[in-house]
């Protein structure tokens, strides 16, 4: 089952650009890592959200994640009593659907019209 890890960071003043650039160059080659996003949640706060094929794959990759963290740790400020990160993780319980783009909606409408017109032609032939 798909798992996610979410890590909250707070950067030192004036270090946001360096923090973002450190992530831009990082490559987590861990087995089971599907990808992730870095989200700016405030002037100096960020969250990274990683998607994994399973909770086990994520757990096995922790040493690799920590080694990447070590490359930009100097840019981080404390976010709480636990240190420079505030991590949480868990398994997906529900996938939410997004709205379709206008282009996708038009395609769907065209397919319905084509199906309807082909049925009409078949009825006329009978």
Short description:
The chain has 126 residues and is of the alpha+beta class.
Description:
The chain has a single domain (3-91), classed as Alpha-Beta Plaits (2-Layer Sandwich), CATH 3.30.70.100. The chain is of the alpha+beta class and 126 residues long. A hairpin with a 4-residue loop joins strand 2 (33-40) and strand 3 (45-52). Strands 1, 2, 3, 4 and 5 form a five-stranded antiparallel beta sheet that branches. It has four helices and five strands, in the order βαββααββα.
Describe the SSE topology:
Elements: E1 3-11, H1 16-25, E2 33-40, E3 45-52, H2 55-60, H3 62-72, E4 76-77, E5 85-91, H4 102-125
Antiparallel strand pairs: 1-3, 1-4, 1-5, 2-3
Average per-residue pLDDT, rounded, comes to 88
CATH architectural type: 2-Layer Sandwich
The proportion of residues forming helix, as a percent range, comes to 40-55%
CATH class: Alpha Beta
Report the portion of residues in β strands.
Answer: 25-35%
From the spread of the alpha carbons, the general shape counts as: elongated
- Could you give the order of the helices and strands? EHEEHHEEH
Multimer state: single chain
Please indicate the count of domains.
1
Comma- or semicolon-separated keywords:
Alpha-Beta Plaits; alpha+beta; 126 residues; five-stranded antiparallel sheet
């Amino acid at each position: 089952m798909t798992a996610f890890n979410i890590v909250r960071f707070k950067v030192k003043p004036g270090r946001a650009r360096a923090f973002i650039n450190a992530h831009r160059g990082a490559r987590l080659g861990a087995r089971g890592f599907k990808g992730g996003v870095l989200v700016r949640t405030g002037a100096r706060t960020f969250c990274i959200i990683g998607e994994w094929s399973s909770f086990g794959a994520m757990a096995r990759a922790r040493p690799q994640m920590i080694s990447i963290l070590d490359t930009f740790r100097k840019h981080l400020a404390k976010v709480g009593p636990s240190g420079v990160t505030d991590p949480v993780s868990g398994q997906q319980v529900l996938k939410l659907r997004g709205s379709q783009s206008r282009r996708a909606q038009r395609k769907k409408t065209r397919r319905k019209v084509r199906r309807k017109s082909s049925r009409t032609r078949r009825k006329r032939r009978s």
